[in-house]
Write a structure and sequence with these properties.
7-stranded mixed sheet; binds succinic acid; Methane Monooxygenase Hydroxylase, Chain G, domain 1; 4-stranded antiparallel sheet; Flavocytochrome C3, Chain A, domain 1; binds flavin-adenine dinucleotide; alpha/beta; 17% strand; globular
Length: 519
């Protein structure tokens, strides 16, 4: 079964929805998304969106903070684009209906997060992402040219490979003609032909055993593009958020926003000692890589499973007003933050690398754009500055839209594309083959390729992942397609890319920290 659309958007987070709204006057837009339409990393964003709004702050300061966090590996040209254009894009978000908290005088109430030299984080309580997603979806629902298909899982993008041609990463002019997608309600695989395809599939936190990301974050878009021989970059830079709630039976992990430390909370060891001053003069508000590594070091030295975040000295009323979601969550698990300290651990949170894109969100594959967390724009370098990712998504959704409208003036549908061929496949006899392998990938990555790595750990991880890769490719060849099978395949690919890039990088920088032991 074939469908045709001018713009195919894969993913319904901030990046995909923003892009869709920007191109909708220029043709038909189809958004496909693998879960409920609002389910995304966007929905769970807490702290907010960084933007320079008032005098006292400046684009130059925001650029500087981003470059410092990125440990020398940011692309400064891209940083300037995001910071300078970001102010306008945030005003657009406000104009389309996203609410951000204001002070009694009517000015926006800007919060502070790690690595920022100014208060510049716009937020809606501690549920900023939920509010942005709500506002964007409301606009999308009202646009006659946009159709959202939820519970549609993108399996692979379509290129010349599907016309029987040999395509390698060196093949010039690889082109994208749309995607093969599984309608998970009917079990049918459909062909969606598109003049422009946009990858907006978000992150890959679930390649690790402990993550703040919702279950959709399995790196599908990056894996699809890599399989199609598109280029990816900076995959070794997985950001671990320093403070997820330590609650061993809860997956994914609940985030305790960095804005709580911006509000004055202090990290302490289990015996109550403040320790961040031993690691960095910015203490609990140092950039994330430094704080996460310090916590990891303290936990390893002391043989303990968590550290504490101390909020007991903070203003109770102000805290509850700013962080109602975090307060309610803590209370629901029996922690009153004003009586007890909150146990926290680092958790995989944000993938700084991804699909290589240029300043207009073009990938290395024609007619294919990538926006949001799945893209590797060069903004974050070796470590993302807090609250820069929602900003990056809106800036590049805008730029991609301008480029894609132009692309569609010149491109058409490729009518030669065959439908998906499921011959020779059958339902798996046992799902355990898939679920066990997924756990193994997550364990390998957490134990060997986490906050601290070493040459020996990377080599061990590579060898073990190769076994899983070979097993899973054999299974994939003969098994009826399902999201779980595809996600496992994608996670193995993401793990492989993280390890490969980490092995190439060797020296410690930013989020990629190599210990000297274990050679
Ligand atoms: P997402 O919002 O993750 O959307 C991806 C979409 O793609 C989803 O709809 C998903 O279902 C869909 N999808 C994925 N694979 C497929 C497939 N195979 N087929 C079809 N659909 C698919 N950043 C900030 O700047 N500020 C913050 O305060 C902040 N807080 C955060 C808090 C948490 C708990 C988390 C997890 C992240 C936070 N981040 C924050 C990061 C930020 O939320 C994300 O980087 C950003 O929302 C990514 O947006 P996106 O549109 O690229 O992807
Ligand atoms: C947080 O609220 O701490 C998350 C902010 C981010 O990931 O940018």
């Amino acid at each position: 079964m074939k469908q045709r659309t001018d713009f195919l958007v894969i993913g319904s987070g901030i990046a995909g929805l923003s892009f869709a709204l920007k191109v909708a006057e220029h043709g038909t837009v189809t958004i496909i998304t693998k879960s409920n339409e609002e389910e995304s990393n966007t929905k769970y964003a807490q702290g907010g969106i960084a933007a320079v709004l008032y005098e006292g702050d400046s684009h130059e300061k925001h650029v500087e903070d981003t470059l410092i966090a990125g440990a020398g590996l940011c692309d400064e040209h891209i940083v300037r684009i995001v910071v300078e254009e970001g102010t306008e894009r945030v005003k657009e978000l406000i104009a389309l209906g996203a609410n951000f908290d204001k002070k009694p005088g009517g000015e926006y109430d800007l919060a502070r997060e790690g690595g920022h030299s100014e208060n510049r984080i716009l937020h809606y309580k501690d549920t900023t992402g939920y509010e942005i997603e709500r506002a964007l979806l409301a606009k999308v629902h009202n646009h006659k040219n946009i159709t959202v298909y939820d519970h549609y899982f993108s399996i692979d993008i379509i290129t010349q490979h599907h016309l029987g041609q040999v395509v390698t990463s060196q093949t010039p002019n690889i082109a994208c003609y749309g995607a093969y997608v599984l309608n998970t309600r009917t079990g049918k695989i459909e062909t969606i032909l598109a003049k422009t395809t946009v990858m907006a599939t978000g992150g890959a936190g679930h390649v690790y055993a402990t993550t703040t990301n919702p279950v959709i974050a399995t790196g599908d878009g990056i894996a699809m593009v890599y399989r199609a021989k598109g280029h990816v970059r900076d995959m070794e830079f997985m950001q671990f958020h320093p403070t997820s709630l330590y609650n061993p039976n809860e997956h994914p992990s609940f985030l305790i926003s960095e804005a709580v430390r911006g509000f004055g909370a202090v990290l302490r060891t289990i015996d109550g000692k403040e320790f961040m001053s031993n690691y960095d003069k910015r203490e609990s508000l140092a950039p994330r890589d430094i704080v996460a590594r310090a916590i990891d070091t303290e936990m390893k030295i002391r043989g303990e499973d968590f550290v504490y975040l101390d909020c007991r000295h903070l203003d109770r009323k102000g805290f509850i007003e700013h962080f109602p979601n975090i307060y309610n969550k803590c209370m629901s698990v029996g922690i009153d933050p004003f009586k007890s300290m909150i146990p926290v651990v680092p958790a995989a949170h944000y993938l700084c690398g991804g699909i290589v894109t240029d300043e207009n969100a073009n990938t290395t594959i024609q007619h294919l754009y990538a926006v949001g967390e799945c893209a590797g724009t060069g903004l974050h370098g070796a470590n993302r500055l807090a609250s820069n990712s929602l900003l990056e998504a809106v800036v590049f959704a805008h730029r991609a839209a301008i480029a894609a409208i132009e692309n569609n003036r010149q491109s058409g549908f490729n009518e030669e594309i065959p439908d998906w061929n499921a011959e020779g496949t059958d339902y798996p006899e046992e799902m355990i083959l898939i679920t066990q392998s997924k756990k193994e990938v997550q364990q390998i990555m957490s134990n060997y390729v986490g906050i601290v790595r070493s040459e020996l750990r990377l080599k061990k991880a590579f060898d073990r992942l190769e076994i899983l890769y070979n097993e899973n490719e054999a299974l994939y060849e003969k098994t009826t397609i399902s999201p779980r099978l595809c996600e496992l395949r994608n996670l193995i690919c993401i793990g492989y890319l993280i390890i490969k890039h980490a092995m190439r990088r060797k020296e410690s920088v930013g989020l990629h920290y190599m210990a000297k032991f274990g050679k």
